[in-house]
Structures are given as C-alpha cells and as structure tokens.
Specification:
Layout lengths: L1 H8 L3 E5 L3 E6 L3 E7 L2 E5 L5 E6 L1 H5 L8 E4 L2 E2 L2 E2 L2 H15 L9 E6 L5 H13 L4 E6 H8 L10 E6 L4 E7 L2 E8 L3 H16 L1 E2 L2 H11 L10 E8 L5 E7 H24 L3 H10 L1 E4 L8 H9 L3 E3 L6 H10 L2 H7 L3
Parallel strand pairs: 1-9, 9-10, 11-17, 17-18
Antiparallel strand pairs: 1-2, 2-3, 4-5, 4-6, 7-8, 11-12, 12-13, 14-15, 15-16
Helix pairs in contact: 3-4, 5-11, 6-7, 6-8, 8-10
C-alpha cells in the first residue's frame, strides 16, 4: 500500500545542483525549473532566521537588501557551503516540480562534481533526503553531461567532455560507462566574475558588485581576440572618493581580465589529455572535445581551446541544460543509473 502511494504521489526527478543555477527535470515532463541557486535569509535581533525567497526572487534582492536580509548562495565551487539553506532550496525545487504538493517522496538523481570529497558527497545526499527525497542517486557531472550530449558512453571508445559550470570545470574521458581519466578544478563562471571585478578595482579604483561583473562578462566576455571591439558603460563606487562613478570598459580589457581563469581551464584540459591512454586519445582526435556548461557560451572559448590543443572542439546545442537532460535520461534506465551512480 505504501509503495502504491509513493507511485501515485511521486514523480522521479533529476536535479543539476549548480553553483550558479539549479535545473530540475521531471520524468515524463522535461525541465520544469531553471532558477538561480540562491536563497534570501531574514535574521531577527535574536539571531533566529527564516527563508524569505528562493531562486529568481532571491537573486533580484542581491546587493539591494537591508542588513537583516542576506541573499546567500548555498553552494560554493560546486559543493554545499550552507547545509540548512541548501536543504531549504532543494525542498523548494522538489515541491515546485510537483506543483506545490507537499506529500511527495520522489526518487532523485543529483549531479555532483567529479572532484567532490566523501564528506561533501554525504552533505549533498543528506540535504536531498532531508528535503523529502525517498532515494538519492549521485551522478558525476561529466557522465551526465556526456549522456545529455548524446555521446556513446556504453561503447569501448573514448569521449572527452569539458563541462564549464559556475563553480567548477569538469574534464573527463569516458569509455564503457565509466570515467577513465578526470580532473575537476574549482574555476568557472564565478571565478571569471571575480576576475572582472578585481580588474576593474585595480585599473579604475571602482568597486562593482557581483551582478555588474556578471553583466560585463555576458556583454563583453571573449576568450580570443577578434576584429570586433565593443564597449559598455559600467557604474560602481569610487574607492577613493566613495562617490558613485561611471566608466567605459572595452572587450579587450575584459579579455585581459579573464586570461587567468581561462588559462587554468586550458591547463586542466591539457593535463587530462596527457593522462589519457593512447587508444582513447586516438578516438578523441577523431571525435574532438565536447564543450558544455554555461562557460561554453563565452565568445571564442572554442577557438582558444582549439588553438591550444590542436583538436576539434564541438559546443553542444544547449550547453546550460546538457547535464540535467543527461541525468533525466538515467531516470528511464534504472540499470544504467545504478551502474554510473557513485556510492
């Protein structure tokens, strides 16, 4: 009887628990949520706290709240930094995915970075269980991304995937439903935003917020020089006078600001290629390297990587949803899910 109730009230779902955005895929429906991984917390004078907003609503408050309301990101560099906020955020997404029904105990697939430690793994699993999941399966992001990109992961041939997310960059070579070589570095979209903010501070003595840095990256961000030079106005607080000021920044300046995080991403790709067995390396020469994640949308990043490693680079059609679509496919194949899930 209990199992029958589970089947009636529960719909299995997959969660791409990203540092920047969380995506939720419901079996039979597709992607039902794609919102910022952010929670707004209210603290009273006694130190008690409650969650005011989650997702898009919480991000709107960033940099615009009074002292007793703090927008926080429960995940940092791909892993849970605030357990309580993460649990509340996961619960919000589970309930949202089930049309606000609280009586749900779904089976949940959660994507995690390949470099995650056993302690961090347990934190993710316990957060999902506390949020109402009946069973939790953890799947490494490169494996889910490879499935989402339609790579032949079951075959005895090498496929190389590079997933540039908000908090981490995952590089992996996959063959026979297993990860042969992988590297995970805690460099991604967030580090790019930080690099832009630091550059502006250093060059113009201008203090800008997270949202402004992200806006600059999205408007002017580019990884490799081209003929198109663009500029935009940026507003922030002058560090010397304390007065708000406006400056103009160019795409070549943004490229200079991004050079360090981009170099780290290129270096980890080269390290992974160096450790790849020769037979699988020859497969990668034929197929190329597959790019996914939000970082794959950075202008000319494929040109930068191609010129460095001299291999074909393929950006998937929808880099932002590749991981969650791949984990969604696993919901339809329990045998494969049990094979690729990490303990």
């Amino acid at each position: 009887m209990i199992n029958l109730l589970f089947r009636i009230f529960s719909t299995d779902l997959a969660i791409d628990l990203g540092t920047a955005n969380t995506l939720v895929y419901v079996k039979g429906k597709g992607i039902v949520a794609n919102e910022p991984s952010m929670v707004a917390v209210y603290r009273d004078n006694r130190g008690n706290q409650k969650i005011l907003a989650v997702g898009e609503e919480a991000k709107e408050m960033l940099g615009r709240t009074p002292g007793n309301i703090t927008p926080i990101r429960p995940l940092r560099e791909g892993v849970i930094a605030d357990f309580e906020a993460a649990e509340q955020m996961i619960r919000y997404f589970i309930i949202k995915a089930h049309n606000r029904k609280a009586l749900v105990r779904p089976r949940v697939v959660v994507c995690v970075p390949s470099g995650i430690t056993p302690v961090e793994r347990r934190a993710v699993k316990e957060s999902a269980e506390s949020a109402g999941a009946r069973e939790v399966y953890l799947v490494e992001e490169p494996m889910a991304a490879a499935l989402g990109a339609g790579l032949p992961i079951m075959e005895p041939s090498g496929s190389m995937i590079v997933d540039i997310g908000g908090g981490t960059t995952e590089v992996a070579v996959i063959s026979l439903a297993g990860i042969v070589v992988s590297h995970s570095i805690r460099v991604g979209g967030d580090k790019m935003d930080e690099a832009i903010a630091q550059y502006v501070r250093r060059k113009y003595n201008l203090f800008i917020g997270e949202r402004t840095a992200e806006k600059i990256k999205l408007s002017l961000g580019n990884a490799y020089p081209d003929d198109e030079e663009k500029t935009m106005e940026i507003k922030g607080r002058d560090l010397l006078s304390g007065i708000p000021k406006t400056y103009e920044i160019s795409s070549s300046e943004v490229r200079e600001a991004l050079s360090d995080p981009l170099q780290q991403i290129v270096d980890v790709i080269k390290t992974t290629l160096e450790k790849t067995p020769p037979e699988l390396a020859s497969d990668i020469v034929d197929k190329g390297i597959i790019l996914t994640g939000g970082g794959a949308l950075l202008k000319n990043i494929d040109v930068l990587i191609r010129n460095t490693v001299n291999l074909p680079i393929v950006i998937v059609d929808d880099p932002l949803t590749t991981v969650v679509m791949g984990s969604g496919k696993l919901l339809d194949d329990m045998r494969l899910l049990r094979e690729v899930a990490i303990n």
